[in-house]
Amino acid sequence: MPPISYRELCAALYRASLEEHHLDVVSGRFVLLARNRAGEVLRVGMDGVIGFRWITSSPRPSGAFELAIVGLERLGPAEPWRLYLNPSPGTELEVTSLRMTCNGEALAGIGRRYCDRPPEDGPVLPPSA
Q: Average pLDDT of 42-50?
């Protein structure tokens, strides 16, 4: 299977429901599971985490986390991946890592993509095997 475009992943995560997320500080790995608008579960893995920032206006945000704003960037071949999420009002998550996968497949591409409104074509990634 070819690598997944970071642009496709960003669009697929937009308005997805964040179901689980884990940061393992010993191994430097961050994993999130999100259910996209098509009902498919996306497993995003970030290895070699070198930055993690969680800012919230409430210590326990209530309700389901819907990813209202999603940003993903890698600005050069030797640069890290940066994932930006806004799962609820007043809450931001930023993770920076050396490698990134979705459903076990490596992400590809260089650039920056932010989704804060519905995509016109409604891209959905293929389901995981």
A: 96
